[in-house]
Design a protein that fits this description.
The complex is a heterodimer. Chain A is α+β, with helices and mostly antiparallel strands. Chain A has helices spanning 65-73, 115-125, 130-143, 159-171, 189-206, 217-223, 241-246, 251-256, and strands spanning 23-34, 37-49, 54-58, 80-85, 88-89, 100-103, 177-181, 209-214, 226-231, 234-239, 261-266, 269-271, 274-278, 284-288, 298-303, 309-311, 323-334, 338-345, 350-356, 370-375, 381-382. In chain A, α2 (115-125) runs parallel beside α4. By secondary structure, chain B is mainly alpha-helical. Classes of the chains: A alpha+beta, B mainly alpha. Chain A: Belongs to the ABC transporter superfamily. Spermidine/putrescine importer (TC 3.A.1.11.1) family.
């Protein structure tokens, strides 16, 4: 087939060259037409997902993560830009001719086919030999622990089992990449946690690139090699789970991933790479800043609730090298392993503090108590620049 | 104790009104009709029960042409109905967007006019002087010997027209219930649009087709209005014969016997059809 190629910079090769991304977006954007108005679903995006990577697209509903995935699958054509699979331009290739498979939200199993027929569907379309289909379906059913369920219809299976059929149905084709659209959303908590571990194991076993769409930050953090946090059609941050958690690039990321306390302020002084924000004579926030930051600059600082120490009296001198904020406890919630406090601080913002319930359980503060929050300089993080 | 008795009785009490209704308006007439079919006599001297089975034999041998014709007309109309209704239902279900109910309403709109009136209007449309045949004749495309009204085409056409919604609606309901993601899953698993239709959409719509066939074949085969209004002597259907025997000839035994024969034939046909393509099996067959 000699298709006219739009600006293909890459040679067409059957086997992907080492270092060629499994999936690549070059200037991809997608607009929808709604009541005669153009609504951007995904704004101009460049993205490269490596071979064998567990990659998550994380964001609230309507952020563009599903549209992004559907453009990889071939269900949506980008308004502009190019989509590459293994270095090949597939922008205008329809879904049935793309070597990626999808695990749908709520599974979308064929209700009129049994487990075996569901799993064999893709191989049959590719005209794979009967014996090979049999062998490969058997293999994959073993991997997803469904051996012996071949004759069951989807209706006769639990949510967790249907989920495994959906996974097997996609994986059996040995796609270049597996796309998973909120695959665990319909399962209860226990099963979901179990499937998270299972998915990770399966991904290691088959070595296929996984692209995982979710709005559940916990899920994304536990499973991913890298996460792209999306908001309003834009990837706000792309990085490892640790980077995204410890160093949120924007206020949105800080708020969306876990719980964050965010304070605004002007830098009063910069000294040895640390900026100082003061609110009163004693209340101050110390934050590592980049070289470009000068005194007088307005900054946003994020602090994770588990990094903060809560003191009922004036804090010991050792703690005063870092940040100190005084405040009043407005809420105490006991969680078993920890106690969560809400504290109205002198910096103006309400702070959430997670206090591990260690041995000194008698050290609990009550609602209305005057307390001091302290944390080390490296636990302050300046958002964005 | 009393409460428990009440609770156990509740289902029976609930079924009572419907049960009595069925008893009075279905079971009693059936038994009356059965007894009538085995009576002898005439309208002047009255009928007496004699257990005369010969009426059945005579009725079948006299009217087997009409019985067979009715089944053929019904079957042909049903096949044409599937071919016409499926694309309509498909289009409304998958491309109707927000206007689905409007389209369904438009489909049903002609059926707010009485069945007989509609059929008579069809008769006028298909008549030799009507807007179909007369232009064809005047431009010389067909000769003077060409007719539509009075032919089996007109009768089957009328049946198709009158039963269209009963085929479209069940197929529409079946198609409407298909999860669009299941269709996408087929595309994702390398099925092109044609294969997706054959392997996924059509098998999932089969229960609707099955229901549609039941709802059209049975009444179409026993219909007498279309053949009376649009047909001629050569297109007489069994419903017409039964009607004439009852209301014109007052030959109640023959009319009753023919009714039972028709019912038996249709019941056996439906039973065989259901056995062959029961909804559960429909899916398994399609899966191969």
């Amino acid at each position: 087939m000699t298709t006219p190629q739009h600006s293909v910079a890459r040679p067409r090769t059957t086997a992907p060259a080492a270092g060629t991304p499994a999936i690549e977006f070059a200037g991809v954007l997608k607009n929808y037409l709604s009541h005669g108005e153009t609504v951007p679903a995904v704004k101009r995006t460049d993205l490269a997902i490596a071979q064998g990577e567990f990659f998550s697209l994380l964001g609230p509903s309507g952020c563009g993560k599903t549209t992004t995935m559907r453009m990889i699958a071939g269900f949506e054509e980008p308004t502009a830009g190019t989509v590459f699979l293994d270095g090949k331009d597939v922008t205008h290739v329809s879904a049935n001719k793309r070597d990626v498979n999808m695990v749908f939200q709520s599974y979308a199993l064929f209700p009129h086919l049994n487990t075996y027929q569901n799993v064999a569907f893709g191989l049959e379309r590719k005209k794979t030999g009967k014996d090979e289909i049999k062998r490969r379906v058997g293999e994959i059913l073993e991997i997803v622990s469904l051996t012996g369920m071949e004759k069951r219809s989807p209706r006769e299976m639990s949510g967790g089992q249907q989920q495994r059929v959906a996974l097997a149905r996609a994986l059996v084709n040995r796609p270049r990449a597996l796309l998973l659209d909120e695959p665990l959303g319909a399962l209860d908590l226990k099963l979901r946690q179990q499937m998270q571990i299972e998915l990770k194991r399966i991904q290691r076993e088959v070595g296929i690139t996984f692209v995982y769409v979710t709005h559940d930050q916990g899920e994304a953090l536990t499973m991913s090699d890298r996460i792209a946090v999306m908001n309003a059609g834009v990837i706000e941050q792309l990085g490892s789970p640790r980077e995204i958690y410890e160093k949120p690039a924007s206020r949105f990321v800080a708020g969306f991933i876990g719980t964050s306390n965010i304070v605004d302020g002007r830098v009063e002084r910069v000294e040895g790479g640390l900026g100082l924000l003061s609110y009163t004579a004693q209340d101050r926030v110390v934050v590592p800043v980049e070289d470009a930051v000068r005194s007088g600059d307005k900054v946003e600082v994020s602090i994770r609730p588990e990094k903060i120490d809560l003191h009922r009296g004036v804090p010991p001198v050792t703690a005063t090298g870092g940040s100190v904020l005084s405040g009043t406890v407005t809420e105490v919630v006991y969680h078993g392993t920890s106690t969560n406090y809400t504290v109205a601080t002198a910096a103006g913002a309400d702070f959430t503090v997670f206090d591990q319930n260690a041995s000194n359980a008698d050290d609990l503060a009550d609602r209305g108590d005057r307390v001091y929050l302290t944390w080390a300089p490296q636990h302050s993080y300046m958002i964005g620049v | 104790m009393k409460n428990r008795v009440k609770r156990q009785l509740a289902p029976y009490l609930l079924v009572l009104p419907g049960g009595i209704w069925l008893l009075i308006f279905f079971a009693v007439p059936m038994i009356t009709m059965l007894s009538l079919s085995l009576q002898e006599g005439d309208i002047v001297n009255g009928y007496r029960f004699t257990g005369h089975w010969q009426t059945y034999v005579d009725a079948i041998s006299s009217y087997q042409t009409q019985i067979v014709r009715s089944l053929i007309y019904g079957a042909v109309a049903t096949i044409i109905l599937i071919a016409l209704a499926f694309p309509v239902a498909y289009w409304i279900a998958f491309h109707g967007g927000k206007r689905k109910s409007t389209y369904l309403f438009l489909l049903l709109l002609p059926f707010f006019v009485s069945f007989v009136l509609r059929t008579i209007s069809w008769g006028q449309i298909l008549a030799d002087e009507g807007p179909v045949v007369s232009p064809l004749r005047s431009i010389g495309l067909v000769g003077d010997s060409f007719h539509i009204l009075g032919t089996s085409y007109a009768v089957i056409g009328g049946l198709v027209y009158n039963f269209l919604p009963f085929m479209v609606l069940p197929i529409y309901v079946a198609l409407e219930r298909i999860d669009p993601r299941v269709v996408e899953a087929a595309r994702d698993l390398y099925a092109n649009p044609a294969v997706t239709f054959r392997k996924v959409i059509f098998p999932l719509a089969l229960p609707g087709v099955f229901a549609g066939v039941l709802m059209t074949f049975v009444p179409a085969s026993s219909d007498y209005v279309n053949s009376a209004v649009l047909g001629s002597a050569g297109t007489t259907m069994i419903g017409q014969v039964i009607q004439a025997q009852y209301l014109v000839n007052s030959d109640y035994p023959t009319a009753s016997a023919l009714s039972f024969v028709l019912m038996a034939v249709l019941l056996i046909g439906v039973f065989l059809y259901a056995r062959m393509l029961g909804t559960e099996d429909v899916m398994k067959v399609a899966a191969r």
